[in-house]
Each structure stands twice: as structure tokens, then as C-alpha cells.
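Exercise: predict the structure of this protein bound to flavin mononucleotide.
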Amino acid sequence: MTKITWKAGTMLSPVPPALISCGTVENPNVMTAAWTGIICTEPTLVYVSVRPSRFSNEIIRKSGEFVINVPTVKLAKAVDWCGVKSGRNVDKFKQMGLTAVKCEKISAPQIEEAPISLECRVKNITSFGTHDMFLAEVLAVNVDDKYIGEKNELNLDKAQLLAYAHGFYYALGKKIGKFGWSVEKKSTAKKRIARQKQENTQNNKKPQKGKKYGKQKNKN
Ligand SMILES: Cc1cc2nc3c(=O)[nH]c(=O)nc-3n(C[C@H](O)[C@H](O)[C@H](O)COP(=O)(O)O)c2cc1C
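Solution:
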């Protein structure tokens, strides 16, 4: 294999093309941001990098709040559209048929149609070259209950999450493993496969072969 070295660039892929909602339920705005991510587990810190020219930058600076709404394939058109139109000129919620819903801890609205919405309060703003980074604490996470199972577990398989890689949108593929499965003990794997087969039979589904993943909790 030969790797060609390119000049520095924002090539990290995939990233979530998140819908960042801000403003209020009565007067909401939303923009797409792919430059967003997790900084720390405890306290739960995230960031979104927004160019100073964006209308959302102005709103978030004033309110100190925003919501990161996780995008899905169903929301792909809205994701792209909200990433090319400015709330200065158009009501993006109205045009894209999005519903602004009240949050638990902040005044900024969440998007009803998104499976997961993270309520964020800004702690710090750092201006770099092209973008201002809003570092924020996550105060609450709102999850569509249709993805929550009987044991209160989150099943995102059916949510069809959307990914963004180097200018293109992708639908996330099938689940192929779980955190820690590569070091799972054989006995644990056997038990898990048996349990999975039983569940699949109950659900009238064919058992999925070849999956070896364990019970470890994601401690990133
Ligand atoms: C896939 C995608 C990702 C984007 N990521 C960012 C980003 O991370 N930061 C940013 O400032 N703008 C980003 N944009 C552009 C803004 O979403 C766009 O300029 C939008 O119109 C700003 O809306 P506003 O003026 O209503 O705030 C992205 C656009 C797309 C389509």
C-alpha cells in the first residue's frame, strides 16, 4: 500500500452532520454543523464550531444555548438544506417541516423529528481561524422512545443514522460489533450467542451468525 500525503485538511471521516437548533420555540433557527463532537465524558462536554458569519453564531452567543440534534437518513434533505440557507432570510423549521419542541433545561428548542437531542449550555467560546468553537456542557439528552427497549436500552439500529464524509452523505450500515467484543471470553460469547438465538427465535428472525461482542460498557 502506498499512501499519498496531502496538505493539512479537515479529512476526519465520518462525522455527524448534526442539526444545531437555537433561539426559542417561538422563534427557532437551525443550521447544519459537521464540526461537532464530544470532548469529555464527566463532565459531559461537547463542542460545535461555527463560522462568525452564521446567523446561528449570533444567536448562540446571545443565548448561550444550543441543541445538537442527531441526524437520520429521513432528515437528510433538511440537513443539507439547513446547511445552505440562512435563518436570516428564511424560516428553516417551517420550510423543512421540522417541529420545534421545548427542552427540559434550556430555552433553545429541540427538533422533534430527530431521534436524539442534546441540550447544551455554552461554557466557553474560543475563536480560532475560520471558526468559533462553542464548548458546552450537556444538561440533558432527549431520546425518541421508539428506540428505547424493554430493558431501557437504546436501540439505534432502526434509526438509520446519517454520516458525512468528505462532502457526501451516507446511511450508517449494519451493526457489526459491540464495544469490547474483540476481547470477549469464549464462555461469555457462547452464552451471548445462545441468548441472541433465543431472542431471534422469539422475534421470528434468523439468528445472526458471526457476531462476537461482549458486555463491556463503553468507557471512552
Ligand atoms: C454538511 C454540512 C456541514 C456543515 N458544517 C458546518 C460547520 O461545522 N460549521 C459552520 O459554521 N457551518 C457549517 N455548515 C454551513 C452552515 O450550516 C450554513 O452556512 C448555514 O446556512 C448557516 O445557517 P444560519 O445562517 O441560519 O446560522 C455546514 C453545511 C453543511 C451542508
